[in-house]
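Lab notebook, bench 4. We co-purified these components, and the gel suggests they stay together. Before we commit to crystallization screens, I want a quick structural picture of the whole thing.
Request: model the full complex, all chains together.
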Amino acid sequence: MSAQPHELATYSAQFERYANALTAAERAPRSVQFSRFLASGFPDKHQEDWRYSDLSRLAEQNYEPDVTTADGLPIVLLPDADALVYINGHLQGAPSTSRWHSDTCELPPPATGVDALNAAFASGGLRLRLDRNTKLEKPLQVLFISRAEAQASMSHQRHRIELGDQAEATVLLDFSGGGGERLATHFFDVRLGRGAKLTLYRIQNEAAGGTLVTRIDAKLSRDAKFEALTVDLGGGFIRHDLDVVLAESGAEAIVAGLYAQAKNSHIDNHVRAVHAAPHCTSRMTYRGLVDEKTKAVFNGKVVVQPGAQKTDSEQRIANLLLSRKAEVNAKPDLEIYADDVKCAHGATVGQLDEVALAYLRSRGIAKEVARAMLLRAFALEILDRIEWPALRTRIEAALHLPSELTVDFEA
Amino acid sequence: MKNIESMLLEITNLHARVEEKEILKGLNLSIKPGEVHAIMGPNGSGKSTLSNVIAGREGYEVTEGTVLFDGKNLLDLEPEVRACEGIFLGFQYPVEIPGVSNITLLKAAINARRKHQGEAEIAPNDFLAWVRDRAKLVKIDPKMLSRGVNEGFSGGEKKRNEILQMLVLQPRLMILDETDSGLDIDALKVVSDGINALRGPERATVLVTHYQRLLDYVQPDYVHVLARGRIVKSGGPELAKELEEKGYGWLEAA
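Here is the predicted assembly.
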């Protein structure tokens, strides 16, 4: 059973207030979504996809929709990038990049659960549309900052990235939190034209009270290339879904991620690659450093639809469990309906290599330095894929795994 | 009376166990600077346990006895501190550490020791020159040093890499635990040259070995036979030759 509708009273009150401000035409589709949300409630552990990530506790929360346009928060902008900044769902200032913003959004077909909640309340957000054969000059850093309000608060946004044929872009979705009890949901609709190439980073460093649900739906046309890299560093409850549909032949999806929180966070990554056409490639490489009382969930699924011959897919998931109180649930999953495919998968959960640790210590290296060297070695598989030096430096600093731990030797 | 002051390593009545099994049962050994000691003995006699206890590896519990290094109680020190004090253990089975390059390890190790001694970090150019020279000595291509520690190295390369680390770190006490095992004659020569290069009046060496072969290249001053957790016989280099001929049976029976 999902959360009982009567427990969703606070959301109903919020929705009523919100809907009253809309025109009748605007209100109708939102009401459909909200009814769906009421009918389904928040997902809980009885739904297979949410088995380890029960959200039903949110039913009794009272989140006020954010109305403030806050500023004055420290905003970390990366050099050599354009920036678009949202605080609690509101666009800040009028930067030159506001052409990549849209106040309105398109709603999905009637959904359930968190998708419906998002659709009922969603405002617009990032809207990046590139014509064919164009290239985004600089990477675009989109900051989503959660700021503590006097009361628990929530915001919901829908975003769209559309690259025309042969278009190219690098985008960073940069989620961070300044504390306070917050719920934020973000949905990203990504469409890549023929031969288009998108490099999409998602970095999450929410505060401990933050509940963040993000979903990226990406659809790839012929020969499109999608590289997605996600890094989770903080947060209270974090759920991220990445659904990639390789719709036409020659499409390629290379997705990778690192989750490395400590304390009490809950981080759930659900990644799905659907091979709907022949000759497509997908790679999933995820690494987890799971410490203290963190609970990590990883679910990687590859679906090969009928006719998607010559599919080439690989899933590799590795976790290091660094504390007795930490927990990892990692599951690679395959559904194959074609017979001429190459699908490799593997998931491991291990501990820090004590023999390697002892070896480093035997050479005089202090235990905590040796430990950091080994954690860095484990994370390198993902860190090495970050082709944006300033971003990489920022992530390494947040992980407390500075690059000084590595020495270059030009022999 | 022995003059403790002049001893580099002084082991007295050492008892140690691994899990619940007592392996060392009252071992005594004194080593002065400049000396080379070979420790031989049958499998299971406690040779590796002795090496590991001196280096401070976890899992080895000392139940009785003392180990003094340069007058300091070694058993109180963490393994990394022992290394910084100048103890080096060359492993029988060096571990592979993908993602931590050899050169990273060397630099971290050198600087850890310098920090311990209150010195500043080594200048990058000095460091690279220092390593490059020593890599040449053990015939290791500097390019291999950018790879993960021992990653994909052959057995012989791993042992040469141990010797390289030793040459780079310049320890005061070198303990080589069956460094000669599994080496072909060329590799044995390289490893021996490395050990000999470090011989000097201020350093001491402990060679733990099964075979006379290594001792043809690295002449020991003393040879000890370890059996049933104790040193049962000590002598000069001629003892190793005797063991090669007669085996250990005559000593174990004694």
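Chain A has two domains: 70-351, 354-411. Worth comparing against the SEC data before the next meeting. Chain A has six helices and 19 strands.
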